[in-house]
Specification:
7% helix, single chain, 671 residues, globular, mainly beta, 12-stranded mixed beta sheet, 50 strands, 3 domains
């Protein structure tokens, strides 16, 4: 069997290598309670380097700030003339953890920032709206002071992960495999101001030094020097030589004759990471047609029984890359046959819970570190827009979990109220305004019954719908693994939808109260019995606000509501045995969400899973390969009955949906 390497493969590799870039410059408007990261340009309601409130601008976490020039006509001129040398010198003397009071913040004010990532930046206040709700900033980030001057604290590593899987340290599946592309996150790791340019792996050998940065990996008494795809101050992508010894090791980055801290890794024989469009190892996976090279998407789903090519890295040592600097660890080498080029790192691939067995081919793609997997989607795989896919090796260790659209033409997930064509269209938009309203009731140990009505109206990048991270179609499970991650998360801006009320079967309306510091989110505590065991209809009405027009939406609960019939099974869980769940109640056409989480008492590792099953099935077993990705520790398991999503329309929204949840949660020990 010859392996077809489509011409788009190198372009795919460049697309799939995560790049953590400095924001460089931009303009943003912060609402009360919003934060700004100068390193990425992201705004959010937590994290970041500064936070805006009516009392002023305050630094976040380890960031420091200093007011440079008070409001005045000279502000724009001063701001335009700033550079790394000026800002780093003055900020190193004046920047501190004290807030800049609102009394000195007005149009024309300039202040400095040293970010949590160690970079220096500045901002010009261009508008304040009377300091009552928003502040508009023009900002710039210049880099670190370490540059070519030989000063500064040198490079620092904060995270090392498989380039595609993105599983952080502390988990059973977080190792870096021999021959894999791995991703280093940190600060001061290359010439300030440089951006990532992915090296062409064909022709000349990949370099071991780019932009002044080089990498060393040490395992025991052996030290190897990986080849690099790119380097920049905040990120480096490298290939672990296939002859690196197995076992506990360390990674260091050297730049400007200064060597970083040693970051611990575990070199393993196999730890595959599948590529996903959101570049964090979750959500929509990258799959292509082996004959045309075309990539599948929500509008062009994969029919069951179709062979696809999956991409990623970490199957294991390349059979033609077993020298420190040579073979496919360093440059392109043609793929000729399955026998000569296979790397059999996976023994099973599960699609929507269906075992598809091992791939037809898994191994080298011809490009350094990049693996391709030719795999036939099982003919009995479930269909949907976000059907889960996960592989396991011979030891049962899972890969990251990605999702694929499976079906014919545009995919379909009617229980979630969105079609594949809708997701495809939304993903192409720069910004998507969405609104979600819902009612839920959770019974949990210690707190009893908690009922809430909630609303969330936000503006996201369209990629939030394009990658669908965290969503899964019926029959599958997804995993979320985290530690002390420094990778950028999705950000949003809240939308004003006015006053929102909900009326249940009792006929008593409740008004949702807006959160005081977060635009677009509101809630109301439900009185006891507001969601009756016989179900009923809940109607939301919105008056409309500055960003969203009036709307009406409904949530319908079945009669009777769901009952988790084997709650004791969730108390003490043996991860290697799977977790059987049974239930009664609900009505056909709705679905059951089974979720759980665990935190390790000895590490910072925390993970959670979510599985979705049709309520008519009456039972579902959370697979052992899903539970094995959670750390041993304590947490909880929750079984919910989720109503089908009901869509609604309102001016200012691209998408609106209403849903309801009734569930039970138990405390759990994961062994």
């Amino acid at each position: 069997m010859r392996i077809r390497l489509n011409p788009a493969a190198l372009g795919l590799l460049a697309m799939a290598l995560p790049v953590v870039t400095l924001a460089a410059s931009g303009t943003t408007t912060l609402s009360i309670g919003q934060t700004l990261s100068f390193d990425t340009g992201a705004t959010a309601t937590s994290g970041g380097d500064i936070i805006w409130s009516t009392s002023g601008i305050a630094p976040q976490t380890k960031a420091t700030i200093d007011n440079y020039i008070n409001a005045g006509t000279s502000g724009p001129t001063v701001f335009a003339a700033l550079n790394l040398s000026t800002v780093s010198t003055l900020c190193s003397v004046g920047c501190n953890s004290l807030s800049i009071p609102s009394s000195v913040i007005a149009t024309g004010d300039v202040f400095f920032v040293q970010t949590n990532g160690g970079n220096y930046g500045a901002a010009l206040v261009t508008g304040t709206n009377g300091l009552t709700s928003t502040v508009t900033l023009q900002y710039a980030t210049y880099g670190t002071s370490g540059g070519g001057t030989g000063t500064g604290s040198g490079p620092t590593i904060t995270e090392v992960e498989n380039n595609y899987g993105g599983v952080p340290a502390g988990f059973s599946n977080s190792g870096i495999a021999q021959g894999a592309i791995f991703f280093i996150v940190g600060t001061g790791m290359a010439t300030p101001g440089t951006t990532a340019v992915v090296q062409n792996a064909c022709g000349a050998n990949l370099p071991t030094t780019i932009n002044g940065a080089s990498v060393k990996v040490t395992v025991g008494s052996t030290t190897v020097t990986p080849s690099l795809y790119y380097s920049q101050p905040t990120a480096v992508a490298a290939i672990l030589p296939s002859n690196t010894p197995l076992g506990a090791g360390t990674v260091t980055v050297t730049y400007n004759n200064q060597t970083s801290n040693s970051y611990s890794i575990q070199v393993v024989a196999s730890a595959m990471g599948f590529d996903a469009y959101d570049q964090t190892g979750t959500g929509l996976g990258v799959a292509s047609n082996p004959f045309t090279g075309a990539f599948y998407n929500y509008g062009n789903s994969i029919p069951p029984g179709t062979t696809v090519v999956l991409w990623g890295s970490g199957l294991g040592a390349d059979p033609k890359g077993l020298t420190a600097q040579g073979g496919r660890d360093n440059t392109c080498v043609a793929v000729t046959s399955a026998a000569a080029d296979s790397i059999n790192g996976l023994t099973h691939i599960y699609v929507g819970g269906v075992d598809g067995g091992p791939p037809g081919y898994q191994g080298a793609s011809g490009y350094p570190g990049l693996n391709q997997i030719n795999f036939m989607i099982p003919v009995n795989a479930p269909t949907g827009c976000n059907v889960s896919l996960v592989g396991t090796n011979s030891a049962g260790v899972p890969t990251n979990v990605i999702t694929l659209p499976i079906g014919n033409g545009a995919c379909s997930d009617p229980v979630f109220g969105v079609s594949g064509s809708q997701q495809q269209n939304l993903s192409g938009l720069t910004n998507v305004s969405s609104g979600v309203v819902g009612v839920y009731q959770i019974t949990s140990p210690g707190t009893g019954v908690t009922g809430l009505a909630i609303s969330n109206f936000d503006n996201y990048s369209g990629s939030a719908y394009g990658d669908a991270a965290g969503l899964v179609s019926l029959g599958g499970c997804v995993i979320n693994q985290s530690a002390t991650s420094t990778l950028t998360t999705r950000t949003f801006t809240g939308l004003d939808a006015g006053t929102i009320t909900v009326t249940g079967p009792t006929g008593t309306p409740l008004t949702l109260s807006a959160l005081p510091t977060v635009v677009g989110e509101s809630f109301a505590q439900l009185p006891t019995g507001y969601i009756p065991t016989t179900g009923g209809t809940f109607t939301f009405k919105g008056t409309g606000g500055a960003n969203v027009g009036p709307f009406t939406a409904s949530v319908v609960f079945p009669n009777p509501v769901l009952n988790w019939t084997n709650q004791s099974a969730g108390a003490n869980i043996t991860r290697s045995s799977g977790l059987p769940i049974t239930w009664s109640g609900g009505t056909s056409g709705t679905y059951v969400s089974i979720g759980g989480s665990s935190s390790s008492s000895s590490t910072t590792a925390t993970a959670s899973f979510t599985c979705i099953a049709p309520v008519s099935a009456g039972q579902f077993t959370v697979p052992a390969y899903i539970l094995s990705a959670l750390p041993a520790g304590t947490g909880s398991v929750t079984v919910d009955n989720n109503t089908n999503y009901q869509t609604f329309n309102a001016s200012g929204l691209n998408y609106g949906a209403a849903y309801g949840i009734v569930g039970v949660s138990v405390n759990s020990t994961f062994n």
